[in-house]
Amino acid sequence: MPDAAWLDARARGRIPDQGRRSRGPCVAIECFEEIPCDPCHDACRRGAIRPFSQINHLPEVDFDVCNGCGACIPACPGLAIFVVDETWKDDFAVVRLPYEFLPVPSPGDEVAGLDRSGQERCAARVVKVERSAKHDRTTVVWVEVPKSLSMEVRHIRVGGSGGGSREV
Hints:
seven-stranded antiparallel beta sheet; disordered C terminus
């Protein structure tokens, strides 16, 4: 069940609704700290992350413009930006998430999908790992999760699941 901060983010244009998620990949920004920070806006070449009227304001997304490219994921120093693709497969979605731990997983690895509180929610499969100089030192990991958990899984534990299941 989403907490109050998550619901507030949805109301303020940072979390896509089900209708938007059903049209293809899109960003979900789970930034809740009003601090001077705006690299997500500068990283978005499409202008989907709206200009900040004040640098301490929280980002807002134009979900009709966002194509889910994910350029904003490694730009966020707070590791608070994800891309969700619920059109990936019938029963599975892909969540692209920032990852700054070692070891870095490899495509095909089974990992544990964790929720915002670090609780294991499912077994997940790594489908792609993006590491490049333009990402600085933030790896972007694509994980396949049950579609019903696409808005819950926000981190992974490498080394597999401690009891989760890939069953849908």
